[in-house]
Design goal:
- The protein is of the alpha+beta class.
- Helices cover 40% and strands 14% of the residues.
- A four-stranded antiparallel sheet has the order 1-4-3-2.
Length: 171
């Protein structure tokens, strides 16, 4: 993945597990050479690790060099990934976007677009619901609608409407 993204000129920031030996060095910000593979040149990448508020350590690998972005900015930059990771988790785990029921390309596309439609429908409903939530000055936390609940309700309604198991709605 490192080679692919770098060859396309895409800047990346990836979380890696502690077992990813290249990202674990004594320094909190270090450059390392990622080995060549499949007739590709070796890459110079950057490993960064920092302490999170809960006391755990986050390990990151990026192709953003020190002259492009300072280490102090990575915790904030990393926080921007949360929305993407949440959406990916929804698509993969709740809508099972990788578990297709067909092998024909047209049917796979249909299942994919049906799942994306459901995801977008949930986003619209959640946005509308969030705008209707009463904000109280006394509340310490910002309340919002639960995406999982909305998605499960849509699945239930879709199942009832179809009258039979719909492969892209229920599993």
């Amino acid at each position: 993945m490192f080679h692919y993204l770098n060859s396309k000129g895409i800047l990346f920031l990836m979380r890696v597990p502690k077992t990813f030996k290249k990202a674990i060095s004594e320094q909190e910000d270090a450059l390392f050479t990622y080995p060549a593979s499949c007739n590709k040149e070796s890459l110079t990448l950057r490993s960064i690790h920092f302490l999170l508020e809960d006391g755990s350590t986050e390990y990151l690998v990026t192709n953003l060099m020190p002259e492009q972005i300072a280490k102090e900015n990575f915790p904030d930059l990393y926080q921007f990934r949360w929305g993407v990771e949440s959406k990916y988790r929804e698509l993969k785990n709740r809508l099972e976007i990788e578990a297709f029921n067909s092998i024909k390309p047209a049917s796979i596309q249909q299942e994919f677009f049906a799942a994306m439609y459901l995801s977008n429908l949930v986003a619209v409903i959640k946005s509308e619901s969030d705008s209707k939530i009463i904000v109280s000055i006394n509340n310490r936390h910002a309340y919002q609608a639960n995406r999982s609940y909305i998605l499960n309700r849509i699945k239930t309604v879709s199942y009832t409407f179809c009258g039979r198991p719909c492969p892209y709605v229920t599993r």
